[in-house]
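REVIEWER CHECKLIST
Item 1: Sequence provided? yes
Item 2: Single chain? yes
Item 3: Sequence as submitted:
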Amino acid sequence: MDWTEMAKDKFKIKRIFFIIFVVILAFAIRIYPIKNTSKGDLLVHYEWSQTIYKEGLENIYFFPTWTYTPPTQPPLMMMGFWTSRHLYENRYLLSELHNQTRLPPSSVILCFDKYGEYLLLRLWAILGDFLSAFFVFFLIKKYLKNFNIALLGLIFMLFNPISLMETSLWGQNDVIGIIFAYISFLLLKNKSWKIFSPLIFLISLLIKPTSLVLFPFFAYLYLFSLKDDKKKIRNILVPFFLCLSFVFLSFKPFINASSSPVPQIYNIINNRITSSSKGTTRASNSAFNIYSLFFELDKTPGSYRLLGLELNSLSLIAYIAINIFSIYLFGKNNTKQPLKLFFIIFFISQGTFLLVTGMLERYFFPAFISSVLLMFLSFKNFGYLMILQNLLWLLNLFYAYFQRDVGWVKELFEDNSLFLVRIISLISLVNFYAICRKYFQIKEK
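Item 4: Structure as written out by the authors:
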């Protein structure tokens, strides 16, 4: 008997049980505030799920009666809300299971009967948290070949206050869409699977369009990956038709069967999902960025003119410049791998959050996973800077969530002409510069 091998096997089993314990604890923390249903977007999602289940999916985007707001989420997320309600409406199956097996306990069934609809609405956000946490875990383990550091990355993601606040308090679902965008980037490196990467990126947009800021760079990377491909035409046409078909299939349940689908899909996107359907663009919608540093938060319109140009136009120029520089950076012949891809994703996402008008406080999320990966893959260079970055994002979320209902939060951040908001905005800009500077100081390996 090889005692060394037995010891290794026991150690692996202990690791597995520890990960299971961490996951259960993280799940318990996320479902604990299920009684918190009095505020946040969870109330909006609750109305959407209840109404679409009752009225059906067809033409639900333009259903006339809503307490809060008509649906603004893409079709896959709306299908998720419908699924949540469908599962809750069939909760009697738990009772039947209990009658036959005595499991789950009756106390769990009673609790689920009372709060299950809110828990199921959070299910997608919770799933996104776990997917992103294990995504970080496996990438750190792959590149550093260090289980302990990978485990720290997993724990950091699962218990990060940003994730907990987004999921448990706010009830938002940004991360689950973004994780599909990250997966699509990684698929580009796989010759057999890269043809499906545009479809995976599309899925991220049809869940939540937050990752749209990464689309120009993703499109460039996909076309770049085909430069020496003998089946270039096939690898362009097949993803195009796959994506076109998937758009039609995802929207099909929500449109009138008797009408032409193209105008209806355009109408849903233009009048419900995109920013054009949400009224006047503001320089900053509760986002601590360059506009909140100089202008009125949530008040200054994007049409405000500076240097002869509207802020919207200046922000568009900044966004184009960010993407051009990112493409240039990708094309540089160096081997800062795997830092290069994750840094560029962070650079585009955070640069957009800081320099583009109309940003909400949650629109930094495409940069969130990259910030954690950069932190753990190169803690010496990025560790403390990314910890600070996560703290700044958390302060932005804290302000945006509580300022409407908690007086002292509004006073703390907005007194003295938004002094604290402007200080945090300035620190965010300086920290972004410091992160970029640090990347260019890393010796090429």
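Item 5: Key structural point noted by reviewer: The chain has 18 helices and four strands.
Item 6: Recommendation: ____
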